C-alpha cells in the first residue's frame, strides 16, 4: 500500500490516506486539501509536494 500523511505537508493535521497506487492517493489528498484546508486552486507544485511525500507502507496482515 501507498501512504500519504497530511501532517508531512500541513503541520498538525493528522489526516492520512492509503491506496494501492499513487494516483489514487493523490486524488484523495487533493480532495482533502480542498475540503479541509480550503485549497480551491490546486497548484501543480502541491501535487508534486503530495507525490514527494507518498511512501510505501509495509502491508500488515
Ligand atoms: Zn490535512
- Cross-sheet strand order for the largest sheet: 2-1-3
Radius of gyration: 11 Å
Helix content: 40-55%
Small-molecule binders: zinc ion
The number of distinct β-strands equals 3
Helices and strands, in N-to-C order?
EEHHE
Strand content: 15-25%
**Distance between the ends:** 12 Å
Question: Uncertain regions: pLDDT < 50 for 5+ in a row?
Answer: none
Global shape: globular
Number of helices: 2
How confident overall, as mean pLDDT?
93
Biggest sheet descriptor: 3 strands, antiparallel
Key words describing this protein structure:
binds zinc ion, 16% strand, Putative small metal-binding protein, DUF1059, 2 helices, alpha+beta, globular
What features would you describe in this structure?
This protein is of the alpha+beta class and 61 residues long. It has one domain (2-56). The protein is 43% helix and 16% strand. It is built from two helices and three strands; from the N terminus they run ββααβ. It has helices at residues 22-37, 44-53; strands at 2-5, 16-19, 55-56. A three-stranded antiparallel β-sheet has the order 2-1-3, covered by helices on one side. The longest helix has 16 residues, at 22-37. The protein is globular and about 35 Å long. The termini are close together. The structure holds zinc ion (ZN). Zinc ion (ZN) binds at residues 6, 10, 13, 15, 32, 36-37. Zinc ion is lined by residues 6, 10, 13, 15, 32, 36-37. It comes from Rhizobium leucaenae.
Amino acid at each position: 500500500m501507498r501512504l500519504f500523511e497530511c501532517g508531512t505537508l500541513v503541520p498538525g493535521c493528522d489526516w492520512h490516506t492509503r491506496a494501492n497506487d499513487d494516483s489514487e492517493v493523490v486524488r484523495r489528498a487533493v480532495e482533502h486539501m480542498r475540503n479541509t484546508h480550503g485549497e480551491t486552486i490546486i497548484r501543480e507544485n502541491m501535487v508534486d509536494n503530495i507525490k514527494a511525500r507518498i511512501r510505501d507502507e509495509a502491508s500488515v496482515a
